[in-house]
Amino acid sequence: NKLRQVIVNYIDNAIYYSPGADVITVRLYRKDGWVVCTVQDHGIGVPQGEQRKIFTKFFRAHNAQLQRPDGTGIGLFLAKKIVLGHHGELIFHSREGQGSTFGFRLPIDRLTPHQNISPNENHSPRGK
């Protein structure tokens, strides 16, 4: 499922860019006709001057390159394509040195039964 791929990407990034952090918060809920999913970390954050480019293909923030030199810069680009392809909206907030929140909102009425995201499903991201 493509939406699961987006969530796992957000969680993987939160783990990689939050060295030593004890908590990464994943929220999945319904609100005003939308399904909302967010992943919040308390990691390195994205520098203010680089935030507008964060979903650009092959772009990697300077501090991310230092933290994880093997990254490709396509994960967030693909997440954007998948979310927008489902008529959704991206959620992104970040403060350098304080962490980031990545997520999406999807209109419930546009989801087909196989696309529904259940908060009761138990999915664990696979580490590298």
Q: Please state the overall shape, judged from the principal axes of the Cα atoms.
A: globular
Mean pLDDT: 83
CATH class: Alpha Beta
Spatial gap, N to C terminus: 19 Å
How does the major sheet shape up? 4 strands, antiparallel
The count of strands amounts to 4
**Proportion of beta-strand residues:** 15-25%
Low-confidence stretches: none
**Multimeric state:** single chain
Annotation field: number of helices: 3
Q: What is the strand arrangement across the widest sheet?
A: 1-2-4-3
By CATH's scheme, which homologous superfamily applies?
Histidine kinase-like ATPase, C-terminal domain
Query: CATH topology, anyone?
Result: Heat Shock Protein 90
Task: Give me the strand/helix succession.
Answer: HEEHHEE
Rg over C-alpha atoms, rounded to the nearest angstrom: 14 Å
Sheet/helix structural class: alpha+beta
Give the number of domains.
1
Question: What is the correct CATH architecture?
Answer: 2-Layer Sandwich
